[in-house]
Write a structure and sequence with these properties.
Layout lengths: L4 H28 L10 H55 L6 H22 L20 E3 L5 E3 L7 E3 L5 E3 L4 H6 L1 E2 L4 E3 L4 E5 L2 H11 L9 E7 L5 E5 L5 E6 L5 E4 L2 E5 L8 E5 L4 E2 L1 H12 L6 H58 L3 H26 L8
Antiparallel strand pairs: 1-2, 3-4, 5-14, 6-13, 7-12, 8-9, 8-13, 9-10, 11-12
Helix pairs in contact: 1-8, 2-3, 2-7, 3-6, 6-7
Length: 402
């Protein structure tokens, strides 16, 4: 086959252009450290790269969600710790109120101190985060959870909802706890009421009575909450306390008008032995926030007509409500701690999985710098040779052979 001068030029020029293109591509790869930049260069590689990039982006979002969640849980935990501390102080003040030597000035001082603690609790129960969202309002985060109505009662305005943060593909963690569960639905002191004319019933030992109440109260059949005191004349006179099924729960010597201690209750019957059977019943359970109990205590301390017995009786109820609130707060703090431990574990797992995804992506699409430099050097050498060959062909004529 005859090789013409034009063929020699064309082939040399084509070789020069291809080598120049490969050199430019090698330079681009060295600058970007990417094996390919379009799907046409590596369809399968590009598909894998895009999938891995999307997965890595998800882990970055999970990490951001986790950081935000950790901040919210930490703030809630810190606020609850402060509430617990304020409740401790309130409990101490209520105990001091029982002192029988307190005069009106002492009572007023205690009332003022309790009022300040009540204000602290009110502010903490309405705490907000840096975005102005209330911590304990449930899903109604823009609504102040606790407010005071026209009658002076503290009421809950939020809901029972919880918000959740997505911290992995299959794990969501609650970011808040509603005030309705922590504060509003806290049991006040359980109580019993006389249902006949010659008997008085009061709580003497709250913890003992609450235990008895929890075992005996029947929310389905009200009649089962009735009890009777039957006295019998004799030597000595005796009494029996019976439940609604007429089972004898307690018996002993009876002295008219003297207290009978019964499962944390003081029961005082004022009839002659053998007289009419006296009755009492367990009251329906009540739940409320501790702010209202503190209001009752403050008002009683400021009431000059309140007797020491009145203060003592209310103090027992208030102490029980404070302790129940602290138990609820402690339980919530424990739940938050569990969530934070779970979050830490999930985020650590996410970091490991994200690192694996990044390594896989690098293996598929990224170029090692040493390899990139080697490739540039190789393509540069090839380009130089192509340029030299073109120069030689370009100056070749018939006169060179004459």
């Amino acid at each position: 086959m005859r090789i013409t001068t034009n063929m020699m030029y064309d082939r040399s020029l084509t070789s020069l252009m291809k080598n120049s293109e490969r050199f430019s591509k090698a330079l681009e790869q060295m600058n970007t450290l990417e094996k390919f930049s379009t799907a046409g260069e590596s369809p399968n590689g590009m598909a894998q790269k895009l999938n891995l990039t999307a997965e890595i982006a998800k882990y970055k979002q999970y990490a951001a969600n986790g950081t935000d969640l950790q901040a919210k849980l930490t703030q809630q935990e810190t606020t609850l710790d402060s509430i617990h501390t304020s409740l401790d102080s309130a409990y101490t003040k209520v105990q001091q109120a029982v002192n029988g030597t307190n005069n009106n000035l002492d009572r007023e001082t205690l009332a003022s101190e309790l009022e300040e603690l009540q204000k602290q609790l009110y502010d903490l129960m309405n705490a907000q985060d840096e975005n102005g969202e209330h911590l304990f309002a449930g899903n109604q985060s823009q609504t102040q959870p606790f407010t005071k109505d026209s009658n002076g009662n503290y009421i809950y305005q939020g809901d029972n909802g919880q918000r959740f943060s997505q911290v992995s593909s299959k794990v969501t963690i609650a970011s808040n706890d509603p005030g309705s569960l922590i504060f509003q639905q806290v049991a006040t002191e359980r109580s019993a009421t006389a249902t006949s004319g010659n008997i008085q019933v009061s709580v003497d030992k709250a913890s003992e009575f609450n235990s008895f109440y929890g075992k005996k109260y029947d929310s389905a059949v009200a009649a089962n909450n009735n009890f009777s005191v039957v006295t019998t004349a004799g030597t000595p006179n005796t009494y029996e306390i019976r439940d609604a099924a007429n089972n004898v729960l307690q018996s002993g010597e009876y002295k008219q008008g003297e207290d009978i201690s019964f499962n944390g209750l003081n029961v005082k019957v004022d009839v002659a032995a053998g007289g009419a059977t006296q009755t009492f019943s367990l009251d329906a359970p009540k739940n409320d926030n501790v702010l209202n109990s503190l209001s009752d205590m403050i008002n009683t301390l400021r009431d000059p007509a309140a007797t020491s017995d009145d203060v003592k009786a209310l103090a027992s109820k208030t102490e029980t409500h404070i302790k129940n609130t602290q138990d609820s707060v402690n339980s919530t703090i424990g739940n938050i701690g569990g969530r934070m431990n779970n979050l830490e574990s999930v985020l650590a797992s996410n970091d490991s999985l994200s690192a694996i995804k990044n390594e896989s992506k690098a293996n598929i699409s990224e170029l090692d710098l040493y390899d990139a430099l080697t490739n540039v050097t190789k393509e540069n050498t090839a380009l130089n040779m192509a340029q030299q060959a073109y120069a030689m062909v370009n100056k070749t004529t018939l006169f060179d052979y004459m």
